[in-house]
Structure formats: C-alpha cells, structure tokens
Amino acid sequence: MWKTVIFLIITLILIPIAAFYLDSEALSELQRKTLKQLTWIYIAAAGLCFIVSTLAKNYSQVDKLWSIIPIVYAWVACYQSGFEDRIVLMAVLVSIWGIRLTYNFGRRGGYQWRFWEGEEDYRWAILREKPEFQSPIKWTLFNLFFISYYQMGLILLFTLPIVRSMEAGPLSWVDYVLAALFIGFVIIEYIADQQQWDFQTEKYRRINNNEALEGNYKKGFIDTGLWKWVRHPNYAGEQGVWLIFYLMSAYATGHILNWSIMGCLLLFILFKSSSDFSEEISASKYPEYKDYIKKTPRFIPFLKF
What is the 8-class DSSP label of residue 131? Predict the structure, then answer.
C-alpha cells in the first residue's frame, strides 16, 4: 500500500511539472494572480483537514470538502476574471456538479452540525488495521501527505481548466455542446448513486427486519441498472465530468494539450487505485464479486482490459 501512496504523491509532483513544460503558452498575469490565490486557499483547507481529522479521529474531512471547495475555486476565478462569459458558464457547471455530490454525501450522513463528525469512509478504518499503518507516526504522515494534502491538491488541479480558460475570447456553440456533455455525465453519476442508494437501503431494511435475502440482495452487491454495464458507473461519470471540463479549456485556448490537463490525468490514476482497493474489499466480503469483475468492465462499457 505504501508503494501506491508514494507513487500517487510523486505523480502529484511530476505530472504538473511535465504539464507546464509541454504547454507552449505562459501564464498571463491574471492567471498567475488567480492561481496564487487558489493555492493559498488549498494550503489552508488541507491544513485544516489535517488538524480536524487528527483531533477528531475522523479521516473523512476531505470528503466533506470534495464537492464544496471546487465551487469556491470556480467562483474565485470567476470574480478575478471580471465574470467573463466562459468562466461564468464553467463556474455554473462546477456548482451543478458540486450541489449534486454534496446532496449525495449529505444523505449518507457525511455532514453533522458538529462539523468534525459525520460518516467516515469505511476504507480508512480498514487501512488503519493494516500492519504498515499500525504505527501512529506512519498513520499521521499518511494523513498529512496523502489524505489531506494530496487529495486536496488533486481537487485544486482538476478545477484549474477554469483558470487556463481565462481571457480566451467569446463563447461559441462548441462550449454549449461541451456543457451539455458535462451535465450528461453529472446525470450518469446521479443515476448510479441513486441506484446504489436504493439497493443498499432495501438490503439493510431486509436485514434489519430479518427478511430473507434473495437475488442480488443475497449476493450483497448491485449488478443491475448502470452497474450491469460497468463496475463503477459513478466513478466513470466523475472522470467524464472532469475530462469534459478540461476539453472546455482545450477548445477555449486552441491547445489540445495544456497545463490544466494535469488534474484530469491524476484523477484517472487515483480512481484506478481507489477502485482496486474497493474491489479488493468487496471480493473478500462477497463470494460472487470475483465473477462480476471477470464479466463486467471497470469504467467503460464493452471495453475490458
């Protein structure tokens, strides 16, 4: 596990360096000023997550901000741009995405009036039980560098296409097509999360009422609806959202490869590692999950690696 963590942290350093090197266009003064402001917000927010999670022993503090702070980043950029039409459109799209995800996280018990409480991602508890994380010092370092600063850094990076799109000229019909695709992927996420919510709610209702578990409820996991076509339709939708967001900057600037691609690439890498870990847990809990892995693609329908 430590090898994976170190690899992810190294990518957070190397990919941005490579991305800036490959982009032929330097940052404008406005972009530089905005990026500096967003970086200070990131440093403060990640530090707060580390402090709160350490004191509260609840390591899902970043999860609470995952859907909220991109909205902050987007509207700060929007304000700095003087409310350019394209930046306003991109900020509205990020807000739609964030409101949807915040609602889904909130209904699972992620938020409490005592902000440091709330549901903790089950994977953190499992990780803490692994031998390599038994040392308090090692877990503290993991919390500092990966849970807090890596994840919050990734959130900043996949929001940066809005900064790269500043001063890029007027909107065109292509922007609206990309915006429609962005919303389409948000809808896919919504449907996938709703199907998972309905399945888990009914499964635990039956368990709590001592009713017989049949069909998929007996299997223990959902493999119907969007989950019939891919094993992680919610993750697929999330990756699609930020790929489209990057393409909006690519079209706006005329650079198919520009430095804001780094967040999108890092997100793909994270979801591969995250889904590996989730599937390892599911396979250990549900005997039929390994067969599900064999017959169902991970993210893209009809495409198996």
Answer: G
Amino acid sitting at position 95: S
Neighbours of 86 (CB within 10 A): 23
How far apart CA 42 and CA 32 sit, in angstroms, is 15
Residue whose structure tokens are 């503290």: 140
Interacting residues of 203 by C-beta distance below 8 A, sequence separation 6+: 213, 217, 220
Nearest to 216 by CA among 284, 292, 299, 302: 292
Q: How confident is the model at residue 194 (pLDDT cuts 50, 70, 90)?
A: very high
**pTM, rounded to two decimals:** 0.88
Specify the pLDDT at position 218: 87
| Tokens coding 14 | 């190397």
Rounded to the nearest angstrom, the gap between the alpha carbon of residue 78 and the centroid of all alpha carbons in its chain is 22
Q: Residue 70 in contact with residue 94, Cβ under 8 Å?
A: yes
DSSP 228: G
Rounded Cα distance between 198 and 190, Å, is 12
- Tally of CB atoms within 10 A around 233: 22
